[in-house]
Specification:
Shape: globular
Radius of gyration: 14 Å
Low-confidence stretches: none
Largest sheet: 5 strands, mixed
Number of domains: 1
Number of helices: 4
CATH topology: Trna Endonuclease, Chain: A, domain 1
Strand order of the largest sheet: 1-2-3-4-5
Structural class: alpha+beta
Mean pLDDT: 86
């Protein structure tokens, strides 16, 4: 399992690689203001916000989901989704490989609401992530 920091770096690198100069990616790590999502990505004339969470398995226990989805972050992400576009990126390990799926904050209680499917690589997950922009 990758640390969340490594997953964020891979996502940033992958988005920039796939969209080049037609995308702007900002990593937010403001330790003073709580609840700000990890990334904002501007492409195609709109901005999408992403909060990245790394889980210990592809089927996390409900207690792990609840612990990872901090109430203030969830509230902020829901507000951003209501005003525009915002998603969780949920990292997990499947068959020994790092993977991720994307879910709406409205479905935050259902892990894997947008699971990309089995037997995919993280590179294929990154390809599919661009469809959320």
């Amino acid at each position: 399992m990758w640390p969340e920091k490594k997953l964020v770096a891979k996502i940033i690198e992958g988005l920039r690689k796939r969209r080049g100069h037609s995308i702007e990616v900002f990593k937010h790590n403001d330790r003073i203001t709580r609840g700000i999502p990890d990334l904002s990505v501007t492409a195609y004339g709109r901005t999408t916000w992403f909060e990245v969470k790394q889980f210990t398995s592809e089927e996390p226990r409900p207690s792990e989901i609840k612990k990872k989805l901090e109430p203030l972050q969830l509230q902020r992400l829901k507000r951003l989704a209501d005003c525009g576009r915002a998603f969780y990126i949920c990292g997990y390990v499947e068959d020994g490989a790092q993977r991720f799926s994307v879910m709406s904050p409205a479905n935050a209680h259902r892990f894997g609401a947008f699971r990309f499917g089995k037997n995919r690589t993280i590179e294929q997950d990154l390809d599919l992530l661009t469809t959320f922009l």
